[in-house]
C-alpha cells in the first residue's frame, strides 16, 4: 500500500475521532450545565432560607424596639404626670403652710405670751392648760425643744418673746 493511502486512512480516522469527541462533548455540555445550574439553585435556596430567617429576626427586633419605645413613652408620660402632681401638691402645701404661719403670727400678735408648745398640749381655760385629767400645772417641754423656738423652726426666725 502506498503511503499516501495510509496517511489518508489515518487522517480520516483522526477526523472521525475528533468529530466523535466533539459530538460526545456537545452531548455532555447540557448535562454539565444542568448539574451546575442545579448546584447554583441549591445554594440560592439555602441562602434564601437563611436570608428569610434573618429578615424574620430583624422584623422581630424591630417589633420589640417599637414595643419598648411605646412602653418608655408611657413611662415618661406617667413620670411627667407624677411630677406635675408633685408640683401641684407642693404648691398647695406651700400655700397651706403660709396660711398656717399667718395664723401663728396672728395668734402671736394677739397673745405673745403663749407659745406653740402649750397650744400643742391642748385647750387653755382661765386657770391654764387643761387635758382629760384636768388642769395642767406646768407645761411639759420636749427634751429637744429650745426655749423660744417654735416646733419645726430651726432657723431661730420663729422666736417668740417669752418676757411679755
TrEMBL record:
**Residue stretches spanning the membrane:** 6-26
* Top-rank taxon: Bacteria
**Compositional bias ranges of the Basic and acidic residues kind:** 54-88, 96-118
What are the start and end residues of every segment in region (Disordered)? 42-164
- The UniProt record lists the keyword Membrane: yes
**Annotated Polar residues bias:** 152-164
Q: Which UniProt keywords apply?
A: Membrane, Transmembrane, Transmembrane helix
- What is the protein name given in its UniProt record? Uncharacterized protein
Q: Which organism is the protein's source?
A: Antrihabitans stalagmiti
